[in-house]
């Protein structure tokens, strides 16, 4: 499939470092910092920058050629950003297959450079008409392969692949085990 619009020259910087923004006033909540939901909006805008590199941006959807859906997302909030703060978002492609891409965004304060937030995503290519999973266009797959090769040279992000949960001392980690141990002790006392 040839695309009816020009594609940008593929940027093989590792990580991709193209997305810039500022925190607008309407993203600020009563706590005086960017609201939790707008981190996701900012990351969605960075995803659009990434999709432009792949040829599957909103323009792709507007031409009814296909679309992308996010299947899973994980966000960490590391440091608050405030109104007017400059944002810089990098993107590291972790893996891909014939229909999916797994990638990781890191949001930094655009002036001071500290990490504000991260976003790990799994994206699926979809057929426009059926709204079912479909293979990537050939050019997108070529671009994904080239970008994956470049990004594999980077270390795996420390915050990628994490699960959410409350860390407890090992003696409290499994409440069912603690309960079983208590029941065994009670039974032993009765014997």
What descriptive keywords fit this protein?
191 residues, alpha+beta, Thiol Ester Dehydrase, Chain A, 4 helices, 27% strand, globular
Q: What's the structural blueprint in terms of helices and strands?
A:
Elements: E1 16-22, H1 36-54, H2 58-62, E2 67-77, E3 86-96, E4 100-109, E5 115-126, H3 138-151, H4 175-190
Antiparallel strand pairs: 1-3, 2-5, 3-4, 4-5
The CATH topology assignment is Thiol Ester Dehydrase, Chain A
Question: What's the tally of helices?
Answer: 4
The largest β sheet comes out as: 5 strands, antiparallel
> What is the H/E string?
EHHEEEEHH
Biggest sheet: strands side by side, in what order?
Answer: 1-3-4-5-2
Task: Give the amount of beta strand, in percent.
Answer: 25-35%
Structural class assignment: alpha+beta
- The parts where pLDDT drops under 50 for at least 5 residues are none
Quick overview:
The chain is 28% helix and 27% strand.
Notes on the structure:
The protein has 191 residues and is of the alpha+beta class. It is 28% helix and 27% strand. A 5-stranded antiparallel beta sheet has the order 1-3-4-5-2.
